[in-house]
């Protein structure tokens, strides 16, 4: 049985940063993730997409952010159970927990932090008859490596941030980018909508709205799509393409965590914003997986929640210890991991 102080379910950015905050308090962490790699949505859905709202980073690729988070927690030596889904939880008489994965790996901890994000990743797919035939043969629901689309003719469908951002990004990569959306209005950031319009005006992007893809053609590989304009005459046109990328978002599925007796609201776990604890003492929920009044599903909010969660977890694990907060920039001291570092460096928080 794997034993740790805080068992974190989900190795997305929130779970990874929780390891750092816990490490400052000398608490050990172990992470479970259903995916084969750490990084959550950043690694799985948009590793090459730039993020602009991480404090201190005017621009950082999602994949690089994950690499940096991994570097930041390295010295705390967290354990990982990757490629396994947390399936069941059992509360023992002493108030500690045993979490078992779908492969039977057991983990024991006094505190469990659920950082499960959207849960299992299931893209919403368009209702097209022969869609599955072209999956991986011209149809993809996520862009992992934009280089795959270099000098290709690409059609993207969708009206959210993902569709807008990737259309903007691929305009410089693909030979032709077409964005199709069912409405004239987009749900994404205003700035991105304006950029798409600018690219359209410069002839670097085709924008077809309101319209929808109603057919896929090709032998084994996708060769063209049938587009229907949503207008009085419902005009139809065939567009030759190499790739069709419907970006309709992910259908949020909590999966097995939904059966753990936690209070759930709209597919998210309700928490107390004092310390992000759930209705079950000792189980916390941080990042995209939780909900509370005013919740924003942003990475920086997950970082904040992880920080407060660790403070509360510390008191739960060490009720006898007094915690005194200090900043991480104290000159001329040892690194927070105990190694000697050049000043000014780490250690920040001291525990008495
Ligand atoms: C295209 C796109 C662009 C975005 N751009 C931005 C942006 O610019 N700025 C920003 O702040 N945010 C952005 N976001 C949102 C941001 O990615 C999320 O807020 C962030 O990833 C949430 O992190 P998390 O760690 O809480 O969850 P996630 O990243 O979703 O990670 C959760 C992890 O938990 C795992 N998991 C779930 N259930 C289980 C289980 N039962 N057992 C084991 N593992 C489990 C999943 O496999 C996953 O790896 C964007 C999202 C998308 C899709």
Automatic annotation (TrEMBL):
Keywords: FAD, Flavoprotein, NADP, Oxidoreductase. The keyword DNA-binding does not apply. FAD binds at residues 14, 33, 41, 46, 86, 121, 288, 329. It comes from the Bacteria. The keyword Transferase does not apply. Its EC number is 1.18.1.2. It catalyses: 2 reduced [2Fe-2S]-[ferredoxin] + NADP(+) + H(+) = 2 oxidized [2Fe-2S]-[ferredoxin] + NADPH. It is an enzyme of class 1 (oxidoreductase). Signal peptide: none annotated. InterPro entries: FAD/NAD-bd_sf (IPR036188), FAD/NAD-binding_dom (IPR023753), Fd--NADP_Rdtase_type_2 (IPR022890), Ferredoxin-NADP_redctase_2 (IPR050097). GO terms for molecular function: ferredoxin-NADP+ reductase activity; flavin adenine dinucleotide binding; NADP binding. Its cofactor is FAD. Homodimer. Belongs to the ferredoxin--NADP reductase type 2 family. This is Ferredoxin--NADP reductase. It comes from Maribacter stanieri.
């Amino acid at each position: 049985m794997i034993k740790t102080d805080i068992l974190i379910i989900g190795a997305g950015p929130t779970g990874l940063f929780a390891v750092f905050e816990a490490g400052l308090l000398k608490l050990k962490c172990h992470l479970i993730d259903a995916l084969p790699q750490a990084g959550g949505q950043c690694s799985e859905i948009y590793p090459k997409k730039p993020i602009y709202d991480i404090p201190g980073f005017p621009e950082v690729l999602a994949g690089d952010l994950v690499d940096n988070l991994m570097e930041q927690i390295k010295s705390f030596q967290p354990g990982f159970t990757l490629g396994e889904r947390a399936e069941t939880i059992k509360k023992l008489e002493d108030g500690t927990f045993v979490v078992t994965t779908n492969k039977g790996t057991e983990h024991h901890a006094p505190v469990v932090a659920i950082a499960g994000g959207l849960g299992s990743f299931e893209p919403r797919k368009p209702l097209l008859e022969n869609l599955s035939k072209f999956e991986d043969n011209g149809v993809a629901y996520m862009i992992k490596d934009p280089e795959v689309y270099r000098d290709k003719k690409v059609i993207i469908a969708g009206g959210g941030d993902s569709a807008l951002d990737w259309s903007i990004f691929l305009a410089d990569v693909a030979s032709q980018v077409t964005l199709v959306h069912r409405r004239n209005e987009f749900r994404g950031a205003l700035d991105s909508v304006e950029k798409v319009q600018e690219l359209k005006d410069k002839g670097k992007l085709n924008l077809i709205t309101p319209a929808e893809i109603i057919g896929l053609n090709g032998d084994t590989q996708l060769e063209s799509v049938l587009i229907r304009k949503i207008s009085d005459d419902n005009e139809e046109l065939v567009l030759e393409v190499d790739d069709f990328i419907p970006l309709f978002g992910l259908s949020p599925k909590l999966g097995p965590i939904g059966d753990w007796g936690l209070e759930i609201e709209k597919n998210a776990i309700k928490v107390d914003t004092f310390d992000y604890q759930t209705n079950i003492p000792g189980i916390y929920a941080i990042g995209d997986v939780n909900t509370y009044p005013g919740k924003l599903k942003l990475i920086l909010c997950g970082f904040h929640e992880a920080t407060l969660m660790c403070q509360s977890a510390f008191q739960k694990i060490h009720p006898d210890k007094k915690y005194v907060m200090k900043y991480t920039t104290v000159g001329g001291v040892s690194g927070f991991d105990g190694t000697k570092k050049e000043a000014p460096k780490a250690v920040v928080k001291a525990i008495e």
